[in-house]
Amino acid sequence: MRVDYVTGNTAIALGSIAAGLRFYAGYPITPTSDIFEFLARELPKRGGYVVQFEDEIASINAAIGASWACAKSMTATSGPGFSLMVEALSLAVITETPVVVVYVMRTGPSTGVPTRSGQYDVLQATYGFHGGLVVPVLAPATPQEAFDLTVRAFNVSEKLRTPVVLLSDATIAHTYGRVVVREPGEVEVVERAKPSVPPEKYRPYDPGEGLVPPMACFGEGYNVLVESLTHDERGYYAPRSDVQRRLMWRLYRKIVESAPELFDYGAAYLDGCDVALVSYGSTSLSTLVAAKILRSEGYRACSIRLRTLFPVYEEGIRRLLNGVGKVFVVENNVGLYYRELRGVLRGSEVVSVPIIDLDLPQPREVVEVVKQWL
Questions:
Q1: Looking at the whole model, is its pTM more than 0.85?
Q2: Smaller CB count within 10 Å for the chain: N or C?
Q3: Helical segments of the chain, H only
Q4: Which uninterrupted H or E stretch holds 354?
């Protein structure tokens, strides 16, 4: 363990190494390229592989393939690149492939301002692919959280056999901060469950008594089928309603029923709070200062930073904000995650505070908007 002063992107790269990354597939795109560059220097020293592919489509498909060869794998991109990845993300969902996708948001839509920051893609991160299911989305706000949540993203991906999106933004990516860096062996690392039955009895998509099937890799002597069509527990194409119903509900339940375990947040000034400022990612740093200013002016304000955005743990969010009269959802977009929370917090007045800025919304600007409502 050591303490470094690094950017959020470097923290993500270091966290992936600590989590056991063995294969990184990428295509350069601002503001993620320095993740690629760091891993290209460091991962081969540890026996891993870093490959630049011709585009983002090839990158995520290569990462999926590497995962089926038992290598923990990752790719990283930004808005336009993620749009190219969503078809393969859907493939990873139905084939239950562990893979981590780092999504560093910039200003959009289209090319936008590649070197500046925003939170415009928060809904695309989980709803962008076809099929109607969700993938876990974790959102750091600081370089330290970028390191810690990268490790957690790999653990969640392996445990649930699912793609996981680590949602950062350009501000976090290039902001320096103090990070406690742990090496492999110094962090808790989760490995995917392996088959306990002999090869002749193995069914690739049979979860047994649970919801997550054990995963055999290519070359281990098992009959491994990576089937993108609706499939039964054997992995055989089965276009029947009972098979589709059973498969979809299992894929849905294994993520949604993990929401209590996945739910993570940070809070300040929560005791006696009746005005809550809720945010995520880099904007939550401004919100924390805004809450402090409001308290100095006599308001009982608190700040809540959500680190897990999806799946939405409705009961946990309601319990966290129980008794809070007004909830302000502060975002650097047009009010996207507010749409998730307004349906959850029916007993409170939920207000969107959409402040669009090319970097961070200023705390005083957040304060002025909130005071107008109060």
A1: yes
A2: N
A3: 8-19, 33-42, 56-68, 79-94, 124-127, 143-160, 170-174, 241-256, 259-262, 283-296, 314-320, 338-344, 363-373
A4: strand 349-354
DSSP string, 243-303: HHHHHHHHHHHHHHTTHHHH--EEEES-TT-SEEEEEETTHHHHHHHHHHHHHHTT--EEE
Which pLDDT does position 374 carry in this prediction? 86
The answer to whether the beta carbons of residues 50 and 24 sit under 8 Å apart is: yes
pLDDT digits (tens, 9 = 90+) for 206-251: 999 999 999 999 999 999 999 999 999 999 999 999 999 999 999 9
- C-alpha 3: how far from its chain's center? 25
Place of tokens 């893979």: 99
Task: Identify the helix (H) or strand (E) that includes residue 181.
Answer: strand 176-181
d(CA 16, CA 58) in angstroms, rounded, equals: 20
Helix (H, G, I), strand (E, B) or coil at 23: strand
Q: Cβ(319)–Cβ(331) under 8 Å?
A: no
Backbone φ and ψ of 64, nearest 5°? -65, -45
Rg (CA), the chain: 21
Instruction: Name the residue type at position 246.
Output: R
Look up tokens 């069914």; give the residue: 203
